[in-house]
Design brief:
Structural class: alpha/beta
Number of strands: 13
Shape: globular
Largest sheet: 10 strands, mixed
Number of domains: 2
Order of helices and strands: HEEEEEEEEHEHEEEHEH
Distance between the termini: 54 Å
Radius of gyration: 23 Å
Number of helices: 5
Strand content: 25-35%
């Protein structure tokens, strides 16, 4: 009889422990986001909304926590800083909002579009397109081609009239090297008129020089980044001021800020 009572008490204790364990697991559900399948992350941080410089970090993961890889690199963003863009994340209303011509880089989380450059090839496994003298990105809000890279030979010269974004800046802008190598950041993928267009990561012309709304970096850093990007790992690009990363990293499944680790 004593053995039976002891055995019953043991079963009851084990059952309670299992329930407690299950409750603990249930209280910490995994974070599900539109970028949960990403295994590579390009993360740009700035000190605040008006900062024009920042740092780019690369992260990767295999079913666990993000781990940093490679060397961090200095970057520049828009001449007016950054503002919330239209990306994969839910719309954010607390802070500036990206608009065409505002000189701000879009903040948020974005898919990475095609890489591009002046050379016939690039050392990357990422999709790459050669830019020619007739390639333009349309930054005219009223255009039906707004926020698209097009070839004037195919769409006609009238279709690119008024655009200020030739993709061969070396040919159209006195030898400018900034688009020698870069990639599209898919801000405003729905091409909403006036919400901002032609957002890239590209080379900087000089250290510390801000952009019109893109993210710029030294050429060696860009080459290392493109060599690292792997389509099979579904990378995403994120840009956030430090305080927004602090606020959102847990719910957005991003690496913790350095001081929070």
């Amino acid at each position: 009889m004593r053995l039976t009572v002891a055995f019953a008490r043991g079963l009851a204790f084990a059952s309670l422990a299992m329930l407690a364990g299950c409750a603990g697991l249930a209280s910490k559900p995994s974070v599900k986001t539109p970028w949960s399948d990403a295994r590579q992350l390009v993360l740009v941080t700035t000190s605040d909304w008006n900062a024009t410089t920042g740092t780019l970090h690369r992260y990767e993961r295999d079913g666990g926590a993000w781990r940093e890889t490679g060397e961090a690199t200095p970057i520049t963003v828009g001449r007016s800083g950054s503002a919330w863009g239209l990306g994969l994340n839910d719309a954010q209303t607390d802070g500036p909002q990206k608009q065409e011509g505002d000189g701000r880089a879009p903040a948020g989380i974005f898919r990475i579009g095609t890489a591009f450059g002046y050379a016939d090839t690039a050392a990357t496994g990422w999709p790459y397109e050669v830019m020619g003298a007739s390639d333009w990105c349309i930054d005219v809000p009223a255009s039906p081609l707004y926020n698209r890279i097009v070839d004037a030979k195919k769409v006609g010269d009238a279709a690119v009239e008024g655009s200020t974004e030739p993709m061969r800046r070396d040919l159209h802008a006195d030898g400018d090297v900034r688009y020698k190598l870069g990639f599209v950041i898919e801000h405003n993928a729905g091409n909403r008129s006036g919400a901002g267009s032609c957002i890239f990561a590209h080379l900087w012309r000089a250290p510390g020089e801000p952009t019109a709304g893109c993210t710029a970096m030294p050429e060696p850093a860009m080459r290392a980044l493109l060599a690292w990007l792997d389509p099979r790992r579904k990378p995403v690009f994120a840009l956030l001021p430090d305080n927004e990363l602090e606020r959102l990293y847990a719910s957005w499944d991003l690496p913790a800020p350095t001081h929070s680790r």
